[in-house]
Amino acid sequence: MGSDLRRGTVDGTAVHTAEFIVSSARLTELHECSAVLRRTRMRSEEIVDEARALLDEAEQRDDTAHILDLRDQLERARTMYCKVLNAYLAITRRINEERQEILRAQMELDRRTGLSGAA
Prior knowledge:
Elements (H helix, E strand, L loop, with lengths): L12 H48 L3 H49 L7
Helix pairs in contact: 1-2
C-alpha cells in the first residue's frame, strides 16, 4: 500500500518538503566533493610549482641529463592539474545549478501559496 504524500496538505507541501530534503542532501554531497577537489587542486598546484622549481634548478646547473626528464614531469603535472581544475570547475557549476533549482522550486511554491516574496 503506497502512501499519498499530498493527502492532507495544501498544494503538495509534503512533496515540496521531500524534494527540498533530497535537493539539500544532493547539495551537501556536492559541497563535500568540492572540498576534496579543492584540496586536490591545491596540492596539484604545489606539485606543478615543485616540478617547475626542479626544472629551473637543472637548467641553471645546465644539467642536460635531467632537463628533458624534468620537462616531461612538469608537463605531466600540468596536464593532471588541468584535469583536477576542470573537475573542480564542473562541480562548482553543478553546485550553482542545484542552488538555482532549489530557489526556483521555492519561488514556485511561494507563488502557488500566494506569498509575494516581499517580507
